[in-house]
Amino acid sequence: MPDGSPTFPTKALPKLLDALKAREQSVLLDLGPVVGTNVTFFGERLGCKIFVEDLFSDIDRHARAGTLDHLPRVFASRFKRLEGSVDGILCWDVFDYLDKPAAQSLAAQLIRLLRPEGVVLAFFSTMAPKDSPLCYVKQTVVNDTTLRHREYPAEQSRQAPLLNRDIIRMFEPARVMEQFLLKTHARELFFRLPAA
Amino acid sequence: MWKRDESVKSTRQPAAASVTPSYAAGVSASKPEARRQNEGDVVNIGKSVVIKGELSGSEDLTIEGHVEGKIELKDHVLTIGPNGKIKAQVFAKVVIVLGEVHGNVTASEKVDIRDNGSVDGDIVAPKVAIASGAHFRGSVDMQRKPSAAASQQPAVAQPTKTAPSPQSQAAAR
């Protein structure tokens, strides 16, 4: 079936793939909505175990209930996996929809889950949110360097962009290994936790 | 000219899926629901059937009812129909989900979650397809581990035979 959704280049995804290829039986955590083709792509390319934890649906649920301020506490107990049990995390653009306290809480939990030398891929907008329809973006992997963006309705709007230094602090002790500013005004950040 | 022997036909077992005695206790059908479609060699469990316990077989199975416990279909296709509701560990060659599954799903070939299908549990299969309108929460493990997949098949998987409960026999009359 033809899909008219726009496609965009990605420079950080190949870095994540390279990092996970080097590991045997790696564990990948996907924080976006479940996308069948992504599951197939990562499963077949990396032979990894993929955990899907759709945080966008969590954000929606709290937005509907008017309890978005609970998110920092929710994230603190959201992930049941053991500390240091994940090799890679796909955050997509979930941080764009969180205020700073929620973003800090989430980043701290993700770092807790990462194994030494584990990696994180996250996108951050550089533009102030406009009065556009509320929507999330479902990111579908077309190939190593291309993503397809499919918008779908959301309850929560994009928040003010996070500053680079705030992002870097949130993810400490992970380090930014690569950073790309795309023509789409998105920043792609690729983090790696240092070896133990 | 060949003539069908109705008396022979009537003694034929209605389904090839086998169930543990707990099935007999759990069936709540009030009319015949489990039937065999000879042409396709597929067993169909109707939407008013409730099975609690272990369900195993050696032919393709479609479930439209409720199953709680464990489902084992060695080398065969399990289809959870749109009305099917499963709370069970599932083992099969191919698992196609159009209904709801709560539990881990292991397939030696493929798991296919279709539009409106729902799986809450961990999937282990060399191939996994998830439609855009499907719900999935859990993990997917597509590692190629043929020996592990084989070892997950139950040791008790035997050629199937039917053990209909007194209730289901009564319902079939």
Give a written overview of the molecule.
The complex is a heterodimer of chains A (196) and B (173). Chain A is 30% helix and 31% strand. Chain A has helices at residues 13-21, 36-46, 55-65, 71-76, 100-113, 164-170, and strands at 7-9, 27-30, 49-52, 86-92, 114-125, 135-143, 146-153, 175-181, 186-192. A 6-stranded mixed beta sheet of chain A has the order 3-2-4-5-9-8. The radius of gyration of chain A is 16 Å and the shape is globular. With 173 residues, chain B is mainly beta. Chain B has a domain at 42-139. The A-B interface holds A 25, 34-36, 39-40, 43-44, 47-52, 54 and B 113, 127-132, 134-144. β3 (49-52) of chain A pairs antiparallel with β13 of chain B.
Fold blueprint:
The complex is a heterodimer of chains A (196) and B (173).
Chain A: E1 7-9, H1 13-21, E2 27-30, H2 36-46, E3 49-52, H3 55-65, H4 71-76, E4 86-92, H5 100-113, E5 114-125, E6 135-143, E7 146-153, H6 164-170, E8 175-181, E9 186-192
Parallel strand pairs in A: 2-3, 2-4, 4-5
Antiparallel strand pairs in A: 1-7, 5-9, 6-7, 8-9
Chain B: H1 6-10, E1 18-19, H2 21-26, E2 35-37, E3 42-45, E4 50-57, E5 60-63, E6 66-80, E7 85-97, E8 100-102, E9 105-113, E10 118-120, E11 123-124, E12 127-130, E13 135-141, H3 146-151, H4 166-172
Parallel strand pairs in B: 3-5, 4-6, 5-6, 6-7, 7-8, 7-9, 8-10, 9-11, 9-12, 10-13, 11-13
Antiparallel strand pairs in B: 1-4, 2-3
Write a short abstract of this structure.
Chain A is α/β, with parallel strands linked by helices. Chain A has helices at 13-21, 36-46, 55-65, 71-76, 100-113, 164-170, and strands at 7-9, 27-30, 49-52, 86-92, 114-125, 135-143, 146-153, 175-181, 186-192. Chain A is globular and about 45 Å long.
